[in-house]
Design a protein that fits this description.
The protein is an alpha+beta fold. The protein is built from four helices and nine strands, in the order αβββαββαββββα.
């Protein structure tokens, strides 16, 4: 089992044992109370917001539209890339990504939600034709796995924790050759 598969399994099991999990295959989309707020969270609506964000901003290549889905104080966390704070700054990052990889496509493999949190396991791919995160344009096809956790507030994304396989991206661009990747 690959490392990302173990991480996805652990996340899935943690959410499943907490109860109230909904899945992309149409399992129950009931409202439930979020433990810290005591008010109903519309799980199905939260999943729709995240999927719309991914479709419009990433697959639709409209980084500037990210502001429609984000709270003003939005914070994007990534262990590899760092933290980006503020709706406009996150939209700028999304614009940079879809500009550098103009044929970018995200394929959702799993989606789970509980309360005001949505977890998505996805595969991201495309051709890197522009510089991205300090990596010069390579003209090469790139692909990486990701597990992203979104926190929603009043129907908008207020935080995202992006678990991206940045080493796979670097390997595909030729910027870094990981000894364990063929």
């Amino acid at each position: 089992m690959k490392q990302w598969q173990r991480a996805a399994l652990v996340t899935t099991l943690a959410l499943a044992t907490a109860g109230g999990v909904t899945m992309a295959n149409g399992a129950a989309n009931a409202q439930e109370n979020h433990p810290s707020h005591g008010r109903p969270a519309n799980v199905a609506a939260n999943k729709r917001v995240v999927l719309a964000f991914m479709q419009d901003v990433l697959n639709g290549h409209h980084g500037d539209r990210a502001v429609r889905y984000l709270t003003p104080g939005m914070t994007w966390h990534s262990g590899t890339v760092g933290t980006v704070t503020g709706r406009d700054n996150v939209a700028g990052l999304m614009t940079s990504v879809v500009t550098s990889i103009p044929d970018l496509h995200t394929e959702v493999k799993d989606i789970f939600a509980q309360g005001d949190k949505v977890v998505v396991r996805l595969v991201v791919s495309g051709t890197q034709t522009g510089p991205l995160l300090g990596v010069p344009a390579s003209g090469r096809h790139v692909q990486w796995d990701a597990i992203d956790l979104y926190h929603l507030h009043n129907g908008k994304i207020s935080e995202e924790w992006a678990g991206e396989d940045y080493v796979a991206f670097l390997n595909d661009t030729g910027a870094y050759k990981a000894p364990w990747i063929a």
